[in-house]
Amino acid sequence: TVTTIKPGFVQTRLLENAEKTFWVLSPDQAAVQILAAVKQKKQVAYTPARWGLVMLIIRHIPSFIFRRLSI
Q: Are 23 and 10 in contact (CB under 8 A)?
């Protein structure tokens, strides 16, 4: 089984100079969630999991509205 991991923000050097970010995971937290997803044989896993809900909502926004959003 292949698991596609779609990570959110992980507290690494990449984020040191970043402006405000939210739902930031430590590398250890991200690793635990990723390993759990692989063990559960999920096809796709978001870390943190709440990003999955956000992406579900975004996927259902009509494209003409989405293009006007600054995301």
A: no
User: How many Cα atoms sit within 13 Å of 71 on the Cβ side?
Assistant: 10
- Answer whether 0.85 is exceeded by the pTM: no
Please identify which residue in the block is written with the tokens 């959003």: 69
Contacts 24+ apart (CB under 8 A), 23-32: 23/48, 23/50, 23/51
Contact 6, 44 (CB under 8 A): yes
Exposure string of 34-47, with b = 16+ CB inside 10 Å and e = fewer, is beebeeeeeeebbb
Query: Residue 27: its pLDDT value, please?
Result: 94
